Amino acid sequence: MPQITSPAFKENAARALADAALQKALSGSRGAFLARRQAAIAALPEFERLREIGRDIKNHTLAHLDFYLEAYAAKVEAAGGTVHWCPTADDARAAVLAICRRVGARTVTKGKSMISEELGLNEHLEAHGITPVETDLGEYILQLRREPPSHIIAPAFHLNREDWEASFRAAHTDLPRERVFRERRDILAEARSRLRARFLAADVGITGANFLIAETGSSVIVTNEGNGDLTQTLPRVHVVLASIEKVVPTLEDCCALLRLLARSATGQDFSVYTTFSTGARRAGDLDGPEEYHVVLLDNGRSGMIGTGFQDMLRCIRCAACMNHCPVYGAVGGHAYGWVYPGPMGAVLTPSLVGVDKAGHLPNASTFCGRCEAVCPVKIPLPGMMRHWREREFERHLTPATVRGNLRLWAWFARRPGAYRAATRLAVGALSLLGRGRGAFRSLPLAGGWTRGRDLPVPEPGGTFMARYARAQRERRA
């Protein structure tokens, strides 16, 4: 398993805020996602209706998940494939390793797969003498740098162009000094020149899956580089890594969700490549693998069924929530300390690794609601983050000072008269103490706030409730 540093989220975030290169990358990349998504949605009048359809497809599938998984597996096996049912990450790693060992694999090419990151698959294969080669452009540069992805669709979101060039020069020692990397196409050309031989040499190709179709036994991947197609057609063996919630009933359902996916993720009508794979090569096929395997991972997901977190399993991994999240936009993905960052990670990570390890994540939210507003399948992310905060509180995982302050606030909140009197007293005292200055730079009992920001001095006129009541009286008069 990859290292989980979610318990150190606050320290991770502080480092991220102080990292000038990261802040440059975050500020330079984020706006493009938002603008392209908005343009794509504006060009599709039925987008809101399509969101409802997508939500309903996923809800129906989750309500009958056992049926559709069994139907999917039967179709895969009828097409000559093999399904490996893996309750845990250990089971999935063992299944992949067994396939590679049986065919004598020494090199494995990989298309982009967040499930492989969840499994820590690269490290596992390397430990057993098998060389994994990432073929997605972003994943390839991260493999050279020995870094995890910071974004689920743009894994190198945290890097600047100069970072790419420096990494290539460090890893590709035969690069001529005069070679320059001014534009994206220069980076693409260098990666392709190195990967071409690796595609041809690979014994096994491993891809993720955006969707699994119960009606046909097909797996579906979407890419913009074509590396996924080469990964699954050139090697003798194709292994699909997918979690159980990726299944959908029919081809028609899959196409509806595909119309949501690219628009929400990259602002495209469809990704450049949308590839459907069904089984191994058949007689008469010009290409394709000799063996086709699907490794189906549970890893805690079935435990979410029937709970307040089931809606999270609707996620189609578009990353719209993190692209619009002010917290992710400030600290990037690595601060979240595991595979899934942003709002979707703030809900999914505690479900998979435990709220004791990931309790900071659902607290890292302004509750602005933008994540839910842009989610293509209408996942109520803020509500589920609140649920995790409640679970954390119930299990006494929050600091004693936080719990004590919440109890104090709750006492006043249940007594409106006392609450109004206390706020009047506090506002009056702060106004008196802050007379002649605009903000407090330090204040007893408020050090957690003033260490990172000023505390404005209350304006004359009393509390908000008092000013609101006065305004209402004046309006009636």
From TrEMBL:
Pfam families with a match to the protein in the record: Fer4_8 (PF13183), LUD_dom (PF02589)
Residue span(s) of domain 4Fe-4S ferredoxin-type: 306-336
TM region(s), chain numbering: none
Top-level taxon of the source organism: Bacteria
InterPro entries documented for this protein: 4Fe4S_Fe-S-bd, 4Fe4S_Fe_S_CS, FTHF_cligase-like_sf, LUD_dom, LutB/LldF, NagB/RpiA_transferase-like
GO molecular function, one term: 4 iron, 4 sulfur cluster binding
Source organism: Caldovatus sediminis
Keywords: 4Fe-4S, Iron, Iron-sulfur, Metal-binding
Protein name according to UniProt: Iron-sulfur cluster-binding protein
GO biological process, one term: lactate metabolic process
PROSITE patterns on file: 4FE4S_FER_1, 4FE4S_FER_2
